[in-house]
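Board work, copied verbatim: Glycoside hydrolase family 92 protein
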Amino acid sequence: MPRVKTGHVARAACAVAVIALYFFYSNPWSSASPSKPGVWRGGGADVLDHVNMFIGTINGGHAFPGASLPYGMAKASADCIGEAHGGFASDGSDISGFSHMHDSGTGGTISLGNFPIFPQFCEDNDISKCKFAKNQRVVGRGSYDASPGYFDITLADGIRGEATVTSHTALYRFTFPKNVSTNGAPLHPVITLDLNDLANTRTGSAKASIDPKTGQIQGSGIFSPSFGTGKYEAFFCMDFKGVEMPSSSIWEGIGTLVNVTTKEFVGYSHGGTLSMFDPPRGNDHILTRVGLSLISSSQACQNAESEIPKFDFGKVRKAAENEWRKKFDVIKVVRGGIDKDLEAIFWSGFYRTMISPQDYTGENPLWNSTEPYFDSFYCIWDSFRSQHPFLTLVDPIEQSRMVRALLDIWKFEGKLPDCRMSLCQGFTQGGSNADVVLADAYIKKLGGGIDWDLAYRAVVSDAEDELERWDYAGRGSLHSWKRLNFVPIHDKDDQGAGLRTRTVSRTVEFAYNDFCIAAMAEGLDHKEDSSKYLSRAGNWRNLFKSDQNSSIDGVDTGFVGFLQPRNADLTWEEQDPARCSPLLKPDSCYLDGGGGETYEGACWLYTFFVPQDMAALVTLLGGPDEFTKRLNFLHESGLLYMGDEQAFLTVFLYHYSGRPGLSAKRAHAYIPKEFNNTINGIPGNDDSGAMGSFVTLTMMGVFPNPGQDVYFITPPFFQEISIVNSQTGKTATIRNINFDARYKNIYIQSALKDGNIWTKNWIDHSFFAEGGVLELTLGPEESKWGTRNEDLPPSMSTKARDAKDLI
Ligand SMILES: *[C@@H]1O[C@H](CO)[C@@H](O)[C@H](O)[C@H]1NC(C)=O
Ligand SMILES: *[C@@H]1O[C@H](CO)[C@@H](O)[C@H](O)[C@H]1NC(C)=O
Ligand SMILES: *[C@@H]1O[C@H](CO)[C@@H](O)[C@H](O)[C@H]1NC(C)=O
Ligand SMILES: *[C@@H]1O[C@H](CO)[C@@H](O)[C@H](O)[C@H]1NC(C)=O
Ligand SMILES: *[C@@H]1O[C@H](CO)[C@@H](O)[C@H](O)[C@H]1NC(C)=O
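↓ predict structure ↓
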């Protein structure tokens, strides 16, 4: 996630619940608005036409629908006053301005949105009647639209604002109507800037200065991150073009003009700038260029000047679109007549995986380094499961740079992040899941100059060294973890300080993290470490209470044996296995000290989290049939919430009980029912594209077990799909035979890999790195394909199997 309620650790409040109210009058899909409705056009020849930017922009999706380059720092959109985590939302709420940096899909408080600008007329050209602070300056929305690299809205007052971007610079094109004052004088367009952000977090000093000769405006402010600790300073540099130079001034308080060209605002005092233009003639646009930096205002100006020297809106937009086309170009599909909505779901999910992390290379004030610097790993708890594996497939070069950025953070801050935004550490939600990202890259032999010895030291430090304050990085309760081989409830031996809840989910995540470290140890020739961490990888068993039953609403489910919280003296405490599922107190397991021993999910769910040793879990839960029954119950009883990332893997766990067909069946049960081409088409926070990567990988038919060299094979939702590996240049093609667009034939009957019989229900990364063709023959019923023990993906306790042994 993070989904966060108020509390002592996370002060953040989540707006999810409020939003349903707005839905009725905000649905751009059904509104017949005048000029450009926010309607997905769909189906054109251009891949960009398949991206619906407004998927997940209501009901907690929080996806950012504005203009951005892949991984870009500049993200420009109009901001609304409703569910504004992604700046703009499809919630019908009023608009408070346009801002230039955002995060996408996040929980926590609203992130970024610094230095919003607001176009307006001031009544009778009277500056004292302009709107300055946020609570004064809302305006209704008219029609709007967006596509990769472009955002367009006409406000209810007739002012149109379009936005496009380069890496660190936003370019706006404002078109004002020709309005007149009460005595008939033409009104002068005004653009105000507010030294604030979306969540009003500005503290300390802020600055604004106006160059009277050039009209250039520079400034800065110090802000707080949205789901973490610390502060960051951001800088901007704004220039106008397309009209005569405006007359600009500085305002303070609730809109008093001060007769200076430079001003420092101390404490929380409000302020900003105001620029007044000549009345529009003809079809004048006011082009507004906002350069951004986290280093200095002058660097913000340099960024703007070097990236957008000519204010050529059309050219900048075209360049942005081409960047996106290049990214999408690695995947080619043969549609096979599938519904256009499904194509939109696929490409929009793909699109959202590249909004964040954000490439801030050259913009990191915290240390000097020649390594790349990425930010907005928001959060790795979400993204380790499928987003980073997806990027490894479609953009290995950038994924490699992200891994190097993680290692550089470790080098200079001492720990890998579990969550990071705005140059600050974010909250850790469970284990140290960057370990999984690193192991995943390692075993898939991700190239690009990653220092694996450094990487190994980083993951070992997660496993061994506890910080005094471990809420923001690393793991807590390590002392007990090493002594008892689980994280006990009410841990009295904890050496550091942190929120001591979530002992069950932390235990299973630590176990998996250690499995991943063992894999790296094995490859890097640290043999002793490898056995140590493999042994800790079995610690999930220590919280398995074999006689625990589960009743729901007083009715025994019949399933026995669940993870449960345990005391250091080995006695058990009870947490209803359904608690924190949608069926029982779903809100009681956040980072708010609600006390849950599982994070944002129930013991029911976490009992399935043994990605390293599913064979052992299947046996423990009573064998394949019993396991399948229990997994069906999880999916069909209402216990599972697909809007949180732990749900992803459970869709594919049938592969381990020899029923790969049921994984395919589940995939179709959730797409498009819960992941669809509507404004609420994401069941929870998109979490920087984590949900996007789930739909995309699921539709590709190669969902990963992250941290392992395993992709579960299910039939792609397309007739055929090809993926080019941009590091090796090789192409992997997956082709469905007997494909039908209505998805009656979703069960694999037989498979050929490069012409040879392939019975394993999984494949490894060499298929993508080295290229090849996987042909799946489909039918309407489950078959024997991929069901034998030797066909199942590897598990720690059974002999690890190598995909290449087969042929
Ligand atoms: C311009 O005039 C129209 C018509 O009176 C009005 O609806 C609109 O709000 C005005 N726009 C602004 C920015 O004042
Ligand atoms: C603003 O300050 C300048 C220079 O200090 C001064 O010449 C000018 O008269 C002032 N204008 C107003 C409106 O006070
Ligand atoms: C980085 O190097 C520059 C130039 O030498 C120096 O001014 C700056 O203080 C350094 N920054 C940090 C965080 O070390
Ligand atoms: C479930 O476990 C509780 C506590 O051990 C026990 O009292 C109860 O009888 C069990 N229910 C069933 C149906 O086995
Ligand atoms: C689309 O997905 C959302 C979120 O999961 C869900 O609530 C909604 O019912 C779905 N809509 C359709 C038409 O399937």
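The longest strand covers residues 232-241.
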